[in-house]
Structure formats: C-alpha cells, structure tokens
Design a protein that fits this description.
This protein has 257 residues and is α+β, with helices and mostly antiparallel strands. The protein has nine helices and ten strands. It has a single domain, classed as Gcn5-related N-acetyltransferase (GNAT) (Aminopeptidase, 3-Layer(aba) Sandwich), CATH 3.40.630.30.
C-alpha cells in the first residue's frame, strides 16, 4: 500500500505526484490553516503565541521569548503557524530546524550517537498552542505538518526534546530515546530545563504505526488535510539529500525501531 508519505520520500518525486496521491486519500477540512511563516508580521504573531504558551508552564524561561530568536530565521529553519479561519487568530506554532547548514540546537548539550551521525535530521522546538480542546487538535496537526515537512525534505530522523510530562506523548507516538531510556538532560537551548532527547525514524513510520495499531494512523497516513501547507523547494530537498550522502535506508548503524 503506497501512501502520500511513501511517495513524497522518494528522490525525484514531483509536486504533481504528491497531489495525485493526496487526492486518493480521505479528505478532511480543518477549522484552521497551517502555513510556513513568510514575513515579519506573521513571525511576530507566532512569537506572541509562543511566549504566552511557554508562560503557562515555564514562566521564567518564557520571559526570554518575547522577541523572535535568531534561530527563527537561520538557514535551514522554518516556523509554522496555525491560523483560525474564523477570526484569523494564531492558534499554534512550531519551529523546525534541519541540519542542512549546521548543527541542531540539541547539539549544544549532547553529542549525537553514531546512529544519528551523517543522517538528515530535523529538530522541532518552540511548540506552543492555545489552551483548551482546540489546542489539542492544533498540536496534533502541527505534528503532522512536521512529519509532512520531513517527508518532503527527505529527512531521515525527526528529533525533539521533551520535558515531563510531555515526553509521554512522544513516547506514545513511538519516538525513542537518543541517549538512555527515560534519561532527562538539561538542555541549553531550552533554558537548562531537563528534557528527554527523542528521535523518530521517518521512513518506517507507517510500518511501525500499522504494527502498533496506532490510533493516529488513519489521521497521519490515510487522510489528506488540504489546510496544511508545508511546501518544500524540491531542488533544496534533493541537494540536502545528496550533500549528506545518506537516505533513511542508507544508515549502516541502526537503532532498534
């Protein structure tokens, strides 16, 4: 069974191929859109939501997030924002940084293990969503947007840092610990707060979610959400793939999946 994600992960796949596969899936329209920030005004709105979300849980660190960070505009980084169709309010945001141009934020605090060395990586940081039931849906859709982006950019591994109790959500999504099971490490780029460092192998996602009978499988793999817009320049994606000289199937040092 070939899905949108299988097609998008192959070098040389065109946008037309992706659209054709999407239209063979169940379509679900969302009450909001998810897009990549394209200008300063959009970034400022995303940062405002980000700071408010962090203030609910880590107020001291949130005080440092009142303005855009340099990482928001670094080469290889994008910022996503979810915008309500009803009133235009920003409902969620996430930053995605790839290792195409340099090391990831987590590498300020840890040395990556051998099985991640030489692989294409994308780290998600600065996740923030509005409160309440709507926020839970926004969080799930932002994760799917992250996954879609990694598929289209030919990323081998999604990498995150998660504090208690959010780490359990990523564990449920079948992320695996990068260092040691259940180990929390103070992370420099998240204010020195202890986090678990976790990774997710992109190419085998559908196989593992299917085997686990995962409740999000249909949402992630069999549903087309036309309101998620995470276009990737195909030339950039292919050059990233070629420059690192690897693919999801090309890693010789494997982590148990």
């Amino acid at each position: 069974m070939t899905t949108h994600f299988d097609v998008a992960s192959k070098a040389g796949t065109t946008s037309a191929d992706i659209v054709t596969t999407e239209r063979s899936m169940t379509e679900e329209v969302l009450p909001f859109t998810v897009k990549i920030v394209r200008n300063d005004k959009q970034l400022e709105r995303a940062v405002t939501l980000r700071q408010a979300a962090y203030a609910r849980h880590v107020p001291e660190f949130a005080a440092q997030l009142r303005k855009p960070e340099s990482a928001d505009s670094d080469p290889g980084s994008i910022v996503l924002f979810a915008e309500s169709k009803l009133d235009g309010s920003v409902l969620g945001t996430m930053r995605i940084q790839t290792n195409r141009y340099g090391s990831l934020g987590i590498e300020e605090s840890i040395d990556l293990p051998d099985w991640l060395q030489g692989a294409t990586l994308a780290e998600a940081t600065r996740l923030g969503v509005t409160e309440g039931r709507e926020g839970r849906l926004v969080k799930t859709v932002l994760f799917k947007a992250y996954f879609l982006y990694c598929q289209r950019a030919m990323i081998d591994w999604m990498v995150i840092t998660a504090r208690k109790p959010l780490d359990r959500q990523y564990e449920a999504l079948l992320f695996k610990d990068v260092i040691a099971p259940g180990k929390y490490i103070p992370m420099h780029h998240v204010g020195g707060i202890p986090h678990r460092v976790m990774a997710f192998h992109v190419a085998t996602a559908e196989m593992r979610w299917t085997a686990a009978n995962h409740p999000l499988y249909d949402f992630m793999c069999r549903t087309w959400h036309p309101d998620i817009h995470v276009e990737v320049d195909e030339t950039v994606a292919l050059s990233h793939f070629m420059a690192l000289g690897t693919s999801a199937a090309g890693n010789t040092i494997a982590m148990p999946l």
